[in-house]
Amino acid sequence: MSEAPKYDVFQAIADPTRRQLLSLLSRQEMPVKEISGHFPMSRTAVSKHLHVLSSAGLVRERKVGRETRYRLDPEPLQELQYWLNYFEQFWDNKLSMLKYYVENEGNRTAE
């Protein structure tokens, strides 16, 4: 029997619905029924998104009676933060070059 695919943080947050789910769950723990009320899709579709988030470690499940409640686990987002921090240096460099270009072109057209 094969194991279900494991999603990474980048795959999990690639979908806008899953990003909205993370935002929603950052406020409080919720059951699927309550979560589904925030989205224009079936409970099954919401459950599939929650499965991807759970597989990536971004969401934790907790059984309370017959109900499963979900909550955000932000720790795996640090992987994303490290990745973004590394590439921020390139954005800063490009923005500095753009600023220099715009300021110098502005001086040339004013002459």
TrEMBL record:
HTH arsR-type domain segment(s): 1-92
MF-aspect GO terms: DNA binding; DNA-binding transcription factor activity
Protein's UniProt keywords contain DNA-binding: yes
Keyword list, A-Z: DNA-binding, Transcription, Transcription regulation
Domain of life, source organism: Bacteria
Coiled-coil regions listed: none
InterPro entries named in the record: ArsR-like_HTH, HTH_ArsR_DNA-bd_dom, HTH_MetalResp_TranReg, WH-like_DNA-bd_sf, WH_DNA-bd_sf
SUPFAM superfamilies per the UniProt record, alphabetical: Winged helix' DNA-binding domain
Claim: Transcription regulation is one of the keywords in the record: yes
NCBIfam families per record: HTH_metalloreg
PANTHER family membership: TRANSCRIPTIONAL REGULATOR, ARSR FAMILY, TRANSCRIPTIONAL REPRESSOR SDPR
Protein name (database record): Metalloregulator ArsR/SmtB family transcription factor
